[in-house]
Specification:
Oligomer: single chain
Structural class: alpha+beta
CATH architecture: 4-Layer Sandwich
Largest sheet: 8 strands, mixed
Shape: globular
Strand order of the largest sheet: 4-3-2-6-5-1-11-12
Distance between the termini: 20 Å
Bound molecules: aspartic acid
Strand content: 15-25%
Number of strands: 12
CATH topology: Glutamine Phosphoribosylpyrophosphate, subunit 1, domain 1
Order of helices and strands: HHEHHEEHEHHEEEEHHHEEEE
């Protein structure tokens, strides 16, 4: 556990001691009223804190909400210490890093890239797909060719020192088993709402560590890893992508909110669905974040350990999510 996360956890535990198990709900309802004041940005895991800071800065300097969610996660894509997002992430079984990303606006416009190699900012390429092509999704070599045509530099295909070390260690046994909450999966998903209620979201990842070559997760799949609708709200996901794709997780949350559930209820119902459809649910992790058009938020995960960053114009903090187990 990072020092910062430990510190934040401890400071939350102080208030939790009296009411074990209800800390996060309390924080969310407190924050709900605070954050009825938009704009606000939510993003997954510890790396959400610096990503939120960039997103908020982008908004403060006049950027749009879609600029904010793009620039926000670009921070994570560049973070050399991060082994689950960007080209420094852990590779697939063959030792190749392949990236997935998506971006969506509340008016339904969206773009994504999957199974992409050698591009430092897959989120920016996803935005290009959204804005400059008649398509929603480009994959593999086609996505890379599109990047070249758009002037994205091709990066050298070599593992970062940390990823190389981890991959070499893994090759000693080559066992493939999703492990909960360690850095074999930790996508950044970000959702945001501006002061006028316009929403956007982004999601970017190197996917599961040591996945089969060609495997694509939930992150670039609109409706699975990300969904945004200005009329209702937005949701994003992290965790074992196969389980999220099977239930169209982010779309499900937005549709549950459309039917009147709060973001928290929608996240909880979606996790219950995921658990019901996953015979091995005790061994997997998946987590969801949601915000509705009024700025109310929700977060829920299968296992303890999922956290998220909540940022607005005056604060940016890490919060532990409640979980099913
Ligand atoms: N959802 C991602 C995937 O399955 C992994 C993650 O969240 O870290 O590729």
């Amino acid at each position: 556990m990072s020092h910062r996360r430990k510190f934040l956890k401890q400071s939350l535990i102080g208030s939790a001691a009296l009411f074990p198990g209800v800390v996060q709900a309390d924080i969310l309802s407190e924050r709900k009223s605070l954050n009825a004041k938009k704009p606000l940005i939510l993003s997954t895991w510890n790396h959400g804190v610096p990503a939120n800071a960039t997103a908020i800065e982008t908004l403060s300097s006049g950027g749009s909400i879609v600029d904010a969610v793009e620039k926000g996660v670009m921070t994570t894509e560049l973070d050399l210490d991060n082994l689950s997002v960007g080209l420094q992430g852990l590779p697939d079984r063959e030792g190749i890093v392949t990236l997935d990303a998506s971006i969506m606006k509340g008016n339904g416009e969206c773009g994504s890239v999957a199974f992409l190699r050698q591009i430092k900012h897959p989120i920016s390429l996803a935005r290009k797909v959204m804005e400059d092509t008649p398509h929603v999704m480009l994959a593999g070599e086609g996505a890379r060719q599109f990047a070249i045509a758009q002037g994205f530099p091709l990066e050298k295909e070599e593992l970062s020192p940390k990823a190389k070390e981890a991959y070499e260690e893994w090759r000693k046994t080559s066992k493939y088993k999703p492990i909960i909450n360690i850095e074999n999966h930790d996508t950044i998903g970000m959702i945001g709402i501006d002061e006028n209620g316009k929403m956007a979201g982004s999601c970017t990842t190197s996917g599961l560590a040591y996945k089969m070559h060609g495997r694509v997760g939930d992150s670039p799949i609109i409706g699975a890893g990300l969904y945004v609708d200005d009329e209702v709200g937005a949701a994003t996901a992290t965790g074992l992508g196969e389980t999220i794709i099977r239930i169209c997780g982010s779309f499900l949350i937005v549709e549950l909110m459309r039917q009147g559930r709060s973001p928290q209820e929608a996240c909880e119902e979606t996790v219950r669905r995921l658990v019901a459809k996953s015979p091995n649910s005790k061994e997997i992790q998946a987590g969801f974040l949601a915000v509705n058009k009024d700025g109310e938020m929700g977060a829920f995960a299968v296992q303890p350990g999922f956290n998220f960053a909540l940022g607005d114009m005056s604060s940016n903090e890490l919060i532990d999510s409640k979980s099913y187990f």
